[in-house]
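HOLO CASE FILE
Compound: adenosine-5'-triphosphate
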Amino acid sequence: MQEFAIEASGLRVRYPGTEADAVAGIDLAVAPGEIFGLLGPNGAGKTTTQHVLTGQLRRYEGRAAVLGRPVGEWGPALYQRIGVGFELPAHFPKLTARENLAAFAALYDGPVLPVRDALAAVSLTDVADRRAADLSKGMKMRLNLARALLHRPDVLFLDEPTSGLDPANAADVRAIVAEQAAAGRTVFLTTHDMTAADELCDRVAFMHEGRFAAVDTPRALKLAHGHGTVVAEYAENGDLRRAEYASTAVPDLRRLLATGTVETLHTREASLADVFIAVTGRRL
Ligand code: ATP
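Model generated. Tokens follow.
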């Protein structure tokens, strides 16, 4: 097995007729089986990076390699080895979920998952015979994932897989992605969803203006850049009040505790969104 599933060094993209690099020299190395997340505001360069790595954008400088081979050398064989789940809609609306997957399965030369297994992997068995147009947004997103999984790819590229989903559907999608990584697939995703980044990703890269401002595990990023706080609820003149203290403000907190009015006390960890602001000076 090659050392890295995905590699880039000095990767740079400038779209014709534009003044600035959309991707301004990034380096990354993603290990097999890792879930790697790209986080950044609109226009940071996330989709452009994915388009290079999935062979959809050929004009770039630097190195971009998938499964040990430069993207430009792969040709169509790349699409037997990677699964791509990009923006919706990506189905034939008049065909059922089952017919959609059968149609996409027919496009692959190599072995593919039986359609019923692909449906089961994303919990769509019960609606297999419903037209894609009549599926809920969460179901469509899962159908999109099933399509990306059909040919048992080694690497999955997902663009905003939980975007626009309610918390329950987003949790379902996160669980499916986690299962795929547990089965040995490498996952490279872009997201604005902090829960997805935090819970799912082994490492995240903060992308800002085409560059990586930080790359690490969510935990290490929070420890290095985030400041937890302590939130106290206390009674004052019959009202319940709330105060938040930086974890360095121990004397203030001690003073409040000494009043004997504190009813609840809990710590609030820094979120990745807080850390993003600390590192880039920008809100996600
Ligand atoms: P989003 O979260 O909105 O999808 P992103 O981080 O994926 O944003 P990109 O879509 O990669 O960002 O865009 C990076 C930069 O490149 C932006 O400034 C964007 O305007 C520019 N850009 C993207 N596609 C093109 C294009 N086809 N031609 C010219 N400029 C482009």
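CASE NOTES: Residues 15, 18, 22, 40, 42-48 surround adenosine-5'-triphosphate (CB under 6 Å). The CA atoms of residues 232 and 265 lie 4 Å apart.
CLOSED: yes
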